[in-house]
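User: structure tokens for this one?
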Amino acid sequence: MDPAPLDMFNRDPSSINAHVQVGFEDVIAEPDGVHSPQCVWKLANKCFTCSRDIAYTLLALCYGVPYAFFWGCEFAYLSFLHIWVITPCISMYMIWLKSIKIIYGACVRTCCDPCFEACGRCFSDIRVTNA
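Assistant:
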């Protein structure tokens, strides 16, 4: 199975990290009535953006490949568990449940149905009228 070609521009095509907003405007905001001078606001924006980009680049360089390897192994293990352990266990459980359902249904019909039928006959002659 050949992997799909990488889209180097849209790196989150399924929007799985849409909740991670890390732009300056998404993190820092000044309410009306309280504003810093424009030079401070512009410098804060540049400082935030540069430090975020440098820190992310360094973290990605140091930890990106090891974490990719770790998560690749983790999802391979998860796939293995589902294919070879969990799905067969669920299938076996469903087979057992079908047998138990037949036995339980027979017990309920044998023990409870006569009581329910008797109660139904007792209460079937009750008539409610509005006075």
